[in-house]
Amino acid sequence: MASDEVKLLGAWPSPYVLRARIALNIKRVNYEFLEEKFGTKSDLLLKSNPVHKKIPVLIHGENPIAESLIIVQYIDEFWASGPQILPSDPYNRAVARFWAAYIDDKWYPNARAILMADEGEAKKAALQGAIEGLNLLEDAFLKCSNGGKFFGGDKIGYLDIALGGFLGWIRVIERMGDVTLIGNCPNLLKWGENFAGDDSVKDVLPETEKLFEVAKFIVAKTKASAKH
């Protein structure tokens, strides 16, 4: 039925789009992936997300849902019969949401700044912030995982998706910035290997080499724009 059709507006390099794709895979939801071209915004995107005008957007039937973490929560709630993504315990669910917000609001901006900063104090500050954030997430992993392979325990959960969306970009930042990030955190390093090898992830996780080329283009374009 048309009302059951699922479409995802996105672009393969986006860590936020990756979150939605992984959640859909976990729930085994068939969907159509509509690729947005870099630097342009389709009419469907502008219509579906007129407030932020950005990807990802999940279109379920005629209903658009925007913002990656909200999309993941929607997928978990609507397809409730599939594997659970958010923790069932209210406190654990709140903790997972807290760290997911921390990743987006605090940690990733520092990690991204490593690429954009010139050598010197700015890069040093960004690197310090990113490493300190990963150390906090290393501790959070030990508490949330209960000895399992993932933040969600034995299976990928909400916080795994929140951080795991950035896994490819972490590798790119380490390479381009000539820095060590996740390598400083042995538990997160092992977590990353398990995450990348999971059936819901391995076919949609972008190749590091391809992401590397995209990152070089974005950094060059951003720095050139900043000079004008």
Automatic annotation (TrEMBL):
SUPFAM superfamilies: GST C-terminal domain-like, Thioredoxin-like. It is found in: Cytoplasm, Cytosol. It catalyses: RX + glutathione = an S-substituted glutathione + a halide anion + H(+). Its EC number is 2.5.1.18. Signal peptide: none annotated. It is an enzyme of class 2 (transferase). One of its GO terms (molecular function) is glutathione transferase activity. It comes from the Eukaryota. GO terms for cellular component: cytoplasm; cytosol. PANTHER family: GLUTATHIONE S-TRANSFERASE U17, GLUTATHIONE S-TRANSFERASE, GST, SUPERFAMILY, GST DOMAIN CONTAINING. Belongs to the GST superfamily. Tau family. This is Glutathione S-transferase. It comes from Erythranthe guttata (Yellow monkey flower). The lineage of its organism: Eukaryota, Viridiplantae, Streptophyta, Embryophyta, Tracheophyta.
